[in-house]
């Protein structure tokens, strides 16, 4: 409504809209229930660490890739990543969607529909992605992908640096890209179950010599648990503290995805997608990249074992 037609005292509601394609299009997704933490994620921003920019991107990359394949998207398309209690969205045009990652109840206008399968969602229908039955993060792929404005080549939300779109809120409208026209013929796609025990293969170093031999032995032989304080920046653990041989701290040095940093409390912290690019606490080991998607689905309390497979 033009401002000139507004009457004194009239109630006006402002709805947040994320930039992307033309805002007047009907090809968009309205967020009805944002959930505890729902963000836009894609392949992330690798290659910018020298600028102090984390890589970000989907924590469970295989689950995000599968959501895109089922929705008929290329791997680089942006998806929604939910945390624990899902989200609910309503498209303004008919779209194909798919929900993957943490198993959950999925409904369309209150009617149960398959999880892990492509779904035709009519315009105006309500897709509700329920709480995770197991695991932590579910992924919602939509044909055409979430077309918010890219920052440094990525549409990912980065919780540490603040780059990319803010975490979603109720009422946000997300523009969608143009569908590729690829049709997926599958009933339900198999997916790995969230881990009952998280086994992380590690390469020891580069700062394992900052710890006593007994501490290194404890690290690779004693069980830990996933801490409730974990997030997209890092998976914190609870368990035996690791004793150091050196006091003081390092000068800040580069940090990589999967680095296992040991802060002053002595409990290992595994850096995930939104990790800082530098740090001053010693890194006792680095987790193999292939094991990190499982870390994204490990609920608090999940047992964790670090297994040394080789040294640096």
TrEMBL record:
Keyword set includes ATP-binding: yes
Keywords assigned: ATP-binding, Hydrolase, Nucleotide-binding
Single GO term (MF): ATP binding
Domain Carboxyltransferase per the UniProt entry, residue ranges: 50-312
Organism domain of life: Bacteria
InterPro entries in alphabetical order: CT_A_B (IPR003778), Cyclophilin-like_dom_sf (IPR029000), PxpC (IPR052708)
Record flagged with keyword NAD: no
Name of this protein: Allophanate hydrolase subunit 2
Organism: Streptomyces viridochromogenes (strain DSM 40736 / JCM 4977 / BCRC 1201 / Tue 494)
């Amino acid at each position: 409504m033009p401002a000139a037609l507004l009457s004194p005292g009239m109630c006006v509601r402002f709805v947040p809209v994320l930039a992307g394609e033309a805002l007047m299009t009907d090809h968009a997704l309205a967020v009805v229930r944002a959930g505890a933490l729902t963000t836009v994620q894609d392949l992330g921003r690798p290659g910018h660490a020298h600028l102090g920019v984390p890589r970000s991107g989907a924590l469970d990359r295989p689950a995000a890739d599968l959501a895109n394949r089922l929705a008929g998207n290329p791997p680089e398309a942006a998806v929604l990543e939910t945390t624990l209690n899902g989200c609910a969205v309503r498209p303004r045009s008919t779209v194909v969607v798919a929900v993957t990652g943490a198993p959950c109840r999925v409904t369309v206008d209150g009617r149960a529909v398959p999880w892990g399968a492509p779904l035709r969602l009519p315009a105006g229908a309500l897709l509700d992605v329920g709480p995770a039955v197991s695991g932590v993060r579910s992924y919602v792929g939509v044909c055409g992908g979430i077309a918010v404005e890219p920052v440094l080549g990525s549409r990912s939300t980065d919780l540490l640096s603040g780059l990319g779109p803010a975490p979603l809120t109720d009422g946000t409208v997300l523009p969608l890209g143009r569908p590729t026209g690829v049709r997926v013929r599958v009933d339900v796609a198999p997916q790995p179950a969230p881990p009952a025990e998280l086994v992380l293969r590690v390469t020891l170093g580069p700062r394992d010599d900052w710890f006593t031999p007994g501490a290194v032995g404890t690290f690779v032989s004693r069980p830990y648990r996933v801490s409730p304080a974990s997030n997209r920046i890092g998976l914190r653990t609870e368990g035996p503290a690791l004793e150091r041989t050196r006091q003081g701290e390092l000068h800040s040095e580069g940090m990589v995805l999967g680095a296992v940093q040991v802060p002053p409390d002595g409990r290992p912290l595994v850096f995930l997608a939104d990790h800082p690019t530098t740090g001053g606490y010693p890194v006792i080991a680095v987790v193999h990249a292939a094991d990190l998607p499982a870390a994204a689905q490990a609920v608090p309390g999940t047992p964790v074992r670090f297994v040394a497979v080789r040294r640096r």
